[in-house]
Write a structure and sequence with these properties.
The chain is an all-beta fold. It has no helices and 7 strands. A hairpin with a 2-residue loop joins strand 3 and strand 4. The radius of gyration is 15 Å and the shape is elongated. It comes from Candidimonas nitroreducens.
């Protein structure tokens, strides 16, 4: 599931860092049925964390109502060009992904 890297863009302007993240995940709700009528098990991201130079700048708990291949956008103060930004997620089946970028 976590084979495709996240697409992360982080740009600092005027002391504020704007972050845009595109994650690859199926985000199944557990309410859909497959072609044979069986319920497709729930499989969704339940925790997302963003860290700038190992300091947490965002922590979010998600549920099954978030769409497939979720897009996340947020802003924070305190980052500067060249700082390391790490985005990590974990899903309800224990799978996880972590990717890092440099703030531009």
């Amino acid at each position: 599931m976590a084979s495709r890297p996240m697409r992360i863009r982080a740009v600092e302007k005027g002391g504020v860092v704007e972050v845009k993240v595109l994650m690859s995940h199926i985000m199944e709700t557990g309410q859909r049925k497959d072609s044979s009528g069986k319920i497709v098990p729930a499989h969704f991201i339940d925790l997302v964390e963003a860290k700038c130079n190992d300091k947490t700048v965002l922590s979010a708990q998600w549920g099954p109502s978030v769409s497939r291949d979720p897009f996340l956008s947020f802003k924070f103060k305190g980052g500067k060009k060249g700082d390391k930004l790490t985005i990590a997620w974990k899903d309800n089946e224990g799978e996880s992904r972590t990717d890092t970028t440099e703030i531009r």
